[in-house]
Structures are given as structure tokens and as C-alpha cells.
Amino acid sequence: MYEPPAVRIRRVYHALSLLQPYDIINGEKTRIGRSGDGGYVLLTQPFLPPVVYSFGVGDEISFEYDLAQRGCKGYLFDHTVNGLPYEHLSLSFTKAGVGVSDDPLGPLVTIEDCLYKNGDGCKDNLLLKMDVEGNEYGVLSAASDDSLKSFSQIALEVHWLHRLDEFAFCKTFIEVFERLNKLFTLCHVHANNCAPLIFVEGLPCADVLELTYVRKDLVNCTPSNTFYPTHLDCANDPERQDFPLLFFPFYPVHSDEKIDPQLAALDYALASLEANEKLRAETRLSTEQRRVSLFGRRLLPRSLPDAPSRKVQELNRLPTASLRLNILYLACHETLEYDDVRMFTGMGHRVFSVGGLSNPDAALPSTRPVMPRFYSRSWWAAFAADPKNDLLAKRISRDFAKQFDLVIVNHDPLLLDINLESFSGMPIIFRTIGQSNDHIEAVLGRHIEAVHVVRYSQKEVGLINFCKTDRVIYFAKFLSDFPRWEPGNRAITFHNSFPTRASVSVPSLAQYNALARVGPFDLYGFLNQTVEAWRGLAPAELQLELFRTAGVYFYVYSVPPSYTLSLIEAMLVGVPTIAPSAAAVRETLGDIADTCGFLDERYEVTDLLDNNPSLIWNTINEASEKVSAMLDDPVQAMIISDRLRVKAASMFDVEKIAPQWQQLFSEITS
Predict the structure, then answer these.
(1) How far is CA 650 from CA 113, 167, 240, 479, 484, in A?
(2) Taking CA atoms, which of 40, 151, 507, 592 is between 20 and 30 Å from 616?
């Protein structure tokens, strides 16, 4: 039976909304158990439950053992192991699983049975911990309200969220958590990074979550203003970065905000999805079929190899420096900083980045896999110990700077002003990132004899009022990071602060809202809560997954860059990208275009897209038509996808960019 996509998406959205966490006003959290898989966060003030019932322990009982050490008594159950890995006088073990009813023929117990056998049926300050690999839904459904009220807290691992697009499973999920939310408040959430971050009906979520609940009558709460993971959380898999939950329903909200407007905004974006889905329902082909013509031949070869594991040793693919340098790097953009430090250290150089990668003990606010080689504890200790250094202002003392062979300053020439004496006599590279204007170039001009200017685009060379150019080196990307595009049915956009940048963005916010009301558009980025199509934030790994599964990438341009990182990443994944022409930018912005420094000859977006008329729009009506055409023609979309990947690889592959930097380093340090 056909079910409209809008109905499915709203059902999944409702299910996820039941996982909205709250901050507890009159409580204090503590991590119990090991720093890794097996530990949970509980409320320990003003109370810690004196008895724990733990279902599903395996060979990892650090949580229960920690509680026993704190004076708690524990009843542990698991039918998959024969005993506990180590003993404690306060812990008892039963080889039995938890289920919906007693089974005289097998090792199965119910929550009610366990409570009454131990004389705890009438108590109200017990702790329930359950990690039973998907059986939690049946167990919680069968447990009576009276039994659940015996527990003051519940530490629960929930599984299989990837199945929320299944009607029966989603229905059960909603019933379980609507009932749980009537009795308890969700006060802590953590994604288990042993399972992936996923998308269900276009909505981001984690496949496995660790949840902590506290009974409603015990606490006062307020809508969450907490970013997860917190300092109490630890990655379940220590070899991978923990997952930031920077999306609905986990992203912090203020107490005067409500969730309903977000659901209303979702309706706008779904308005035309049903009609489009019906149109293509009977003719939809698999991804591989879309690559093959009716004659059985592949339309285009796979021009780029599928992305290998990130654990492939990238050091073997970068040029090794004959002279390894100590590089002082003044950062200005988190993603660019990460890419550059990863490249330079991969080439064998040592880098101290004054930015997000300075302090080895401070977590980078992203899911990018930070590597030990990015940091130097000795340099950080020396930097932090010198009162003349200022991380926020990027002020560097002479004593600290003289440890380095060269300096790279990104974007801001004022950093040359404040560090002029400290950098005296050192090779200095000033690197543009696309935001230069007459004022920035004028400040740069004061130091033009002391710096080597590296421009990020050929289009910046020779512009009026721009300083000299010593090199053009494009941004670098590691191709192995980027998955291959699989055609979807949504138009996605990444753009921060759309309302506050509306006057310098193309299309305008009004034009974008009009498109989103009649098409399947999703907007991600900071400070966009008032935009109808806003879907939240997208950390690095989620962003790549969104690119991979989108129908098209609808590019919103803000003056004055020649191109931006999001455009590069979309091309490397291969998602067809719809972008404005230079004429559309000038027409949309009017007089502001000249004021903000927009120049037709500086605009490189259309060149990167090979001036493909299927991707470039001149009017907003054309933009709408091109999005629809691309969504409706998967064969043409696949052809374009392969061409975009080849183009992006030819320009931004780190294996091509790194030797250009190495040549420059050799020239200016010899």
C-alpha cells in the first residue's frame, strides 16, 4: 500500500522528538564505570539509588562494580555468559535474560519477577540498567507502570534506530517512549560510536543511543541548553571520534523556544514531495542501474576510485620533505586548519597551529578524526607558559616564534601588525582564503616586502587594488574522505547565518524560502532557526553523508569569494550542484555587489562547474526548473556527477597540492 513520503517523514520526526533531553536544575551528574564502552552517566546528587538491576552485562561490569564500590547492591542478569569477569560481595549474578514473561523452559525473567523475588517490589529508589541488544522495546512495553515507578533512574541503551522508517517498528518505538516520557525525564544522551550516524527519511540520528532517565517526581527540569557529548562522556570506540549530537532533537534550545515551529517548517519542505515521489515511484531504478544504459553498457566509467578506509596510511601518498620544518600556523577557519595541518604534518613537517588545534587536551568541535601528529605538547606547554602569548588574539611572543622555521598567516593581515616584531627576519607566508577586499589588501600592502603572498584562486591574480601574487595554491582535500554520490530526492544547502547574511547571499532569503515552499529543500547551518527549511546543524561526517544521499546540492553564494569549501566537497562527492551565474549574483545583489567587492572576473564557481547549463541559473525560476530537472533525470545526473568528481580531483587533490607547498617551502627557507 502506497504511503505518502510526507506521512513517513512526519512519523519518524515525531519518534525522534520523543528523545528531546532536559537539563536538571536540582541534580548533579557523574560518570559511573569505565571511560569507554560500558560506562554511563547518572544523577548522583541529591541521591544515588542503593540497588541496581542490570540486564545485559556480558564481560564488562565496570558500571556495576563502580556502583558497588559506592555502597550499592547489584543484581546482574545475562543469559549469554556463565558468570562475572570478576567478583564483588555486593554483586550477584543470574544466568538469565530479561523478557516479556517467565519461560519455565528457558533462562528468561521479567522485571516484575526480579523485583518481587528480591523483596523490592514496593520500593521507589532503584536503578534499572538495560543493554539487551534491541529487546528493550518488548521488555519496556510489557513492564507495568508500577514496576517502572520502582526505579528512580534508568540507564538504557537503545538500538536499531535505522529501522524507524519501518511502520511497525516506528509505531512500537513511539508507544514505548511516549509511555516512558510520561513517567520519566530524559536527562542525558550519548551516541554509541560503535554504530554509525545515519539518516532515516532524510533526518539525522544515531543508530544506537545511551540514555539516562530520572523519574519526573524527583527533579525540576528545563529544556536542554547542553551540547552533547559533554565532558562526562567518552567514545565507546576509542579509535574513533565521539559523535557530536548537533541536530534535532539534541541540539540545545532555550527555555522560551518550542519544538512545534520546527515541525511546522518541516511541512513546508514536504509540500511537493508526495507528487514527485508518485511520479517516479514506478520508474525508480537502483543506483547501479542508473549507471548502465539500455544496451547494458556503463554510461561512464567510475572515474575516481571508491573512497578507501581512512585508516589507509596517507603519509605514503604525500611528498616527504628532505628538510623537515617547524611551521607556525595562524588559523582562521576550522575546516581549513584541519586540512592544512593534516597535509603539512603528513609531509613530515612539525606544525603548531594557533587555533582549534593548539591544545592537545581540548576537543576539536567536530567529528573529524584528529591525529596525534597534529599536536606538540611541549610547544603547547611553552605557549601557555608565556604570558606574552594570546591564543584568542593570536599574539605570539618573540621567544616562542623563534623556535620556528617559517610562519603561515591566514586571511587577516592585522596579525602581521600585532606580531611584526616577533616575526622579524622569518619567512612569512600570507595566504588568502577568498575574503580579501580593498581594505584587507591595503593593510597587507604595509607588509608586502616581508611576506610571500599565496592566493587560493587564479581569479584573484591581478585584480584592481589587490597586492602582488607570489603563488596560486588551491585548497587541498584528501580524496579518500569523500564517499561516492548515491542519487536521492532532496535538494540540500549548507549556509550559515542566512537571515543575517541575506543581503549578501544569492539567492536571497526570500527567494530561497519561496523555493523551499514548493520543493524538497533542506537547509543546514548555524543561526538559521527562523528559516522555514532549516533542519539543524551538520557536523563533518554528517555533512558528507548528506552530500552522498542528496538529490542535488543547491549552492547559496555569499560575496566575495571565488569559491568555497562546501562547493569543493560537494563536487568531490559528486552530488550535482546548482549554482547562480555571475549575472544572477549581480542582479540579485544590485548595488551591494559593488559595495561588497563582487567582480564577475573573480567569480570561479561557474568555471568549476564547467559552465554546464544544466547547473547554472540566471533567474530564480530557472533555479527551480534545474533542480526539478536534475531530480527527475538520474541518468543525466550520474553523468554530471562523474564529471564533477574528475574536475574537483584534478584541482584539489592533496597529492597535487602538497608538492606545490613543498616547492614554496624549499625556496623561501633555503
Answers:
(1) 66, 45, 30, 11, 16
(2) 592
pLDDT of residue 583 exceeding 90: yes
> So what's the architecture of 480-652 in CATH?
3-Layer(aba) Sandwich (3.40)
Domain ranges of the chain: 5-48+98-104+127-249, 314-476, 480-652
* The amino acid at 162: H
Task: Please tell me the predicted confidence (pLDDT) of residue 74.
Answer: 96
pLDDT at 286: 36
Residues 6+ apart with CB under 8 A from 19: 177, 186, 189, 209, 211, 249, 250
Backbone φ/ψ region at 211: left (φ over 0), alpha (ψ -120 to 50), beta = beta
Residue range 314-476, CATH number: 3.40.50.11930
Beta carbons within 10 angstroms of residue 246's beta carbon: 21
Distance of CA 483 to the CA centre of its chain: 15
Mean per-residue pLDDT, 299-309: 33
- 324-353 residue pLDDT tens: 899 999 999 888 999 999 999 999 999 999
Q: pLDDT, tens digit, for every residue of 591-608?
A: 888 888 889 999 999 999
Question: Do 314-476 and 480-652 have matching folds?
Answer: yes
Q: How far is CA 344 from CA 318, 373, 397, in A?
A: 9, 10, 23
Window from 102-106, 251-255, 558-562 with minimum mean pLDDT: 102-106
Residue 573 identity: V
* Helices and strands of the chain, counted as H and E runs: 23, 28
* Residue 466 three-state SS: coil
pLDDT given for residue 51 in this prediction: 96
